[in-house]
Amino acid sequence: MSQDCATRYPLVLVPGMLGFIRLVLYPYWYGIIAALRRGGAVVIAVQVSPLNSSEVRGEQLLARIEQILRETGAQKVNLIGHSQGSLTARYAAAQRPDLVASVTSVAGPNHGSELADYLQKHYPADSAKGRLLGVLLRVIGAVMGLLDTGYRGPKLPVDIPASHHSLTTEGVALFNQRYPQGLPDTWGGQGPDEVNGVRYYSWSGTLQPGKTDRGGNLFDGTNRSCRLFAKTFVREAGHCDGMVGRYSSHLGTVIGDDFPMDHFDIVNQSLGLVGKGAQPLRLFVEHAARLKAAGV
Ligand code: CA
User: Fold this and answer.
1) Would 274 be classed as within a structural domain?
2) DSSP code for 148
3) What separation in Å is there between the alpha carbon of 222 and the centre of ligand 1?
4) Cα 269 to ligand 1 centre (Å)
5) 258 alpha carbon to ligand 1 midpoint, in Å?
6) pLDDT (tens place) for every residue of the chain, 296 residues total
7) Cα of 200 to ligand 1 centre, how many Å?
8) What CATH number is attached to the domain comprising 261?
9) How close is the Cα of 97 to the center of ligand 1, in Å?
10) Whether 208 contacts 238, CB under 8 Å
11) 182 inside domain
12) Could you give the CA distance from residue 296 to residue 76 in angstroms, rounded to a whole number?
């Protein structure tokens, strides 16, 4: 077996909103865990509340990290978060930098999501449409929770308004005031590569007509959803992955922010159906080698 991905510390994968470990047989990190393990990495996918604030999710993640450290004997972990998983990982690293060697944001709304802003404006929580959306999310979350065969912990609390607020530009700006570690000083810039001994990295994709809407994505409903969601973007119109803007994703060392991938392609969803020229697994494998080279 190759040892190219054999990082010093375990890789802990943190999912986004409505995330899961494995729906019946179907993993959130489709093909990614196997690819990293083939390279010799210790990889653990975790679950946190699918619908809650980044702080509540972050506290759950911290408890899980402590458990992982006890079980593996490792001194620290490398956190890789997708979407809201990035904010969750950032919270954990800000609170316990002694337990976290690195935070990697994969399509993380590190400056908020314009899709969440649109929903806040057009589906406010106190409106009939907003309440309907809340009920729908609650039902989806509950069904997914029942089907998650990978998670074996206590029932995770749900707070839909907190979940939503944690993803808007306004909500993330408040979060960023409290937990600024790794953020760039200027819009579109890179962040520091290390803060409090924690290394910070990010990558993300953008919708690219002729690429992201071709190949496997011709058959993929999540790509059609991303193309629809992209229409809600104003500040980063034409420069988003359907749920997160290109510059909004920046954190620490920016490995890339315009890979031809939608918000789901970037974690090899759905079923590895991605657009032309997209190589989501390769980015994870290369990143594990990068972490290994950095000594973490
Ligand atoms: Ca796809």
Assistant:
1) yes
2) B
3) 6
4) 5
5) 16
6) 789 999 999 999 999 999 999 999 999 999 999 999 999 999 999 999 999 999 999 999 999 999 999 999 999 999 999 999 999 999 999 999 999 999 999 999 999 999 999 999 999 988 999 999 999 999 999 999 889 999 988 899 999 999 999 999 999 999 999 999 999 999 999 999 999 999 999 999 999 999 999 999 999 999 999 999 999 999 999 999 999 999 999 999 999 999 999 999 999 999 999 999 999 999 999 999 999 999 99
7) 26
8) 3.40.50.1820
9) 34
10) no
11) yes
12) 9
265 belongs to the catalytic site: no
Instruction: List the catalytic residue out of 49, 83, 86, 102.
Output: 83
Is residue 53 part of the annotated active site? The answer reads no
Number of independent structural domains in the chain: 1
Q: How far is the CA of 153 from the centre of ligand 1 (A)?
A: 30
* Residue at 96 is within a domain: yes
In angstroms, what is the span from residue 224 Cα to ligand 1's centroid? 9
- Domain around 141: 11-293
Say if 268 falls within a structural domain.
yes
**pTM (2 decimals)?**
0.97
Q: Catalytic residue among 213, 220, 241, 257, which? A: 241
User: Is 294 buried (19+), middle (13-18) or exposed (0-12) by CB count in 10 A?
Assistant: middle
Spatial separation of the C-alpha atoms in residues 180 and 177, rounded to whole Å: 6
Helix-, strand-, coil-residue percentages of the chain, each rounded to 5: 40, 15, 45
Which CA distances in Å does 213 have to 12, 198, 277, 282?
Answer: 30, 36, 11, 20
Q: Which residues, listed in sequence order, are joined to residue 13 by a DSSP beta bridge?
A: 45, 80
83 is catalytic: yes
Query: Could you give the C-alpha distances from 63 to 12, 48, 101, 208, 294, in angstroms and in order?
Result: 13, 10, 16, 39, 26
Which one from 82, 111, 250, 263 is the annotated catalytic residue? 263
